[in-house]
Each structure stands twice: as structure tokens, then as C-alpha cells.
Amino acid sequence: MGKKKNKPPKSAPSGEPFHPALSGLASLRDQLPAADPQVSEPKANAEAEPDNATSSVKLLLQREKKGRAGKTVTRLRGLPSAEARHRWADKLKKELGCGASIEGDDLILLGDLGERAKERLEASGFQHVTLGN
């Protein structure tokens, strides 16, 4: 087999879109309102800052093995909403390097992670974190 030649990327003429299907977008772009520099974007790491809702929540971390074929999991109880459970599942999975899932009103972390999860939650502003059995 021969070597493939590197072709330069195709470029559109200066006034026309690259693909004919996108030709109507130029007129739509002119109709959009200008961005308002006064409006600030929400903070991406809002859950890391303590607030009244975070500080008043009581969380319970429990270790359990029963009914899981001998595997240990850590159950986190007390997160107020489904959105909070999903957000914290993603965050704790990344920070603790483990798996996580939602079972009803509880967040399940795969592994014996009670101490490490407690440290992370307290560092994020939760004041009442209890480590159970």
C-alpha cells in the first residue's frame, strides 16, 4: 500500500458557509440579540460553597454488605432532592475514584469509602455528616 497524502483542509469562500444546508444561518445570526456583558454567568462550582441549605442538611453515611454478594458499599442518606443526589453522585465518583448509583432516596458509593466521603462532604460545606456502622 502506498502512503496517504495529507490534503489541505477545504475552506469555504469568504462570504459563503461551508455547507449548502447552512446557508440560512447567516441571516439568523444577524437577528440574534447582542450578548449583555452586565449579566454574569452562574458559578460552575456552586456546591463547593457552603450556604444555608447545605449547612442545615444532616447526612448519614452507612457501610453495608448484606444482599450484595459480600461486596461493601457506602450508603449516603439525607440529600434533599433528586437533582442533588445526581450532582453529588457525579462529583463523588470523580473525587473518590469509585462507582456510584442512586437507589430510591439514597446515594450508593461502591466500596468502603465512609471516611473519605465524610471528609469531602465536610470540605464542601456540609456541617452535619455522621458516619454510621
Total of helices: 4
Q: Per DSSP, what share of the residues sits in E-state strands of 2 or more residues?
A: 15-25%
Major sheet: arrangement of strands:
3-4-2-1-5
Helix fraction, binned, reads 25-40%
The average pLDDT score comes to 80
Element-by-element helix/strand order: HHEEHEEHE
The level 1 CATH classification of the domain at 53-131 is Alpha Beta
The CATH topology of the domain at 53-131 turns out to be Translation Initiation Factor Eif1
Oligomer state of the chains in this structure: single chain
- The total strand number stands at 5
Structural class by helix and strand composition: alpha+beta
Sheet with the most strands, sense and barrel status: 5 strands, mixed
Are there runs of 5+ residues with pLDDT below 50, and where?
Answer: 46-52
Shape call: elongated
Cα distance spanning the termini:
65 Å
Full CATH superfamily name of the domain at 53-131: SUI1-like domain
Q: What is the architecture of the domain at 53-131 at the second tier of CATH?
A: 2-Layer Sandwich
Account of the protein in words:
With 133 residues, the protein is α+β, with helices and mostly antiparallel strands. The chain has a domain at 53-131: SUI1-like domain (Translation Initiation Factor Eif1, 2-Layer Sandwich), CATH 3.30.780. It contains 4 helices and 5 strands, in the order H-H-E-E-H-E-E-H-E. The protein has a 5-stranded mixed β-sheet with strand order 3-4-2-1-5, covered by helices on one side. A hairpin with an 8-residue loop joins strand 1 and strand 2 (73-77). The longest helix has 15 residues, at 82-96.
